[in-house]
Every structure is written in C-alpha cells, then in structure tokens.
Amino acid sequence: MKYLLFLAIKSQGKKARGFTLIELLIVVILLGVLAAISLPSLFGQVAKGRQAEARAALGLINRAQQGYRYEKGTFATLSELSLEAASISLTFYNISEVGTRDAFGAAYRANAVTEFDDDIKNYAGAAGQTAAGAYTGIVCEDETPLEDNVSTSNSAGVLACVDGIEIN
C-alpha cells in the first residue's frame, strides 16, 4: 500500500507539460484571422509601389519638357529630350506620346504592360505653357485598374485631366 501511495504522489509531481489540442487549434485560428485581415493591405501596397514607377517617370518627363521648352522655344518629342527621360527603363509601364506637340504643350501616357494591365492603374501626363508664359505640368491617374481611358486636355497651356484624377 505504501508503494501505491508513493507512486501516486510521484506521478503528481511529473505533470505532463505542453499544449493541448484545443490550445493549438485556437492559435492556428487566430493566425488565420490575422493573415486574412493583413493580406489585402499587403497586396494594395505592392500595387502602389508599382504605380510609383509611372508617377515618377511622368514627373521626370514633365520637368524635362519644361526645361526643353525654356531652352529651345518648343516642346520636344520623347526622343528629342536630352535627359534620360527619352530612354527611361520601366518594368511595369510603357510610355508613349499622345497626339502632336504644339506651342502650348505635349502629352504622353503610361500604360501598364500586359501582365499587369488589370492590377495597376494607367497614367497620363502633359507639360504646357500658358499664353502668359507660365509653365504647367500635370499627371493624372485612372480611377481603377480596369479603366484605360485617362487622358489630359490642353487649352492654350491650361492643363486638365479627362476621365481621371489629378495627382500632382
């Protein structure tokens, strides 16, 4: 009898240490809920980072156009710009000229490459000079990635966004 009592007391001192199945299940569920909440935000940040490429490129072209207009008296085609703006190497966008340049400005678009066409927004930009001599520049973005209709308008050097949102 003393031996059984000894074993009972001894076994109480060696309680099993670890997590129960229910505790582990609760932790896994909590991690799943946190992941479900944070992943959409992460994907949105990736798209914003890709779109920054187009905004920076169009801003660079705007500044280069204004400098070219100041020096040469006319706006340039993308290939005429002396800066590296003419040969910008972009990963997510293709830049093209829109319409013809004139004494009041030049316009261009940044269209997402085919692989990212439905994931990131398209952009349009223009540089201009008003009749009073003020230099203007604008960058516009599509309202959603699924729209491909953003453009700019130029009325005697006064620039505006058409079917898009002005971001500068």
UniProtKB/TrEMBL annotation:
It is found in: Membrane. Its main location: membrane. The chain crosses the membrane at residues 21-43. It is a single-pass membrane protein. One of its GO terms (cellular component) is membrane. Keywords: Membrane, Methylation, Transmembrane, Transmembrane helix. This is Pilin polypeptide PilA. It comes from Microcystis viridis NIES-102.
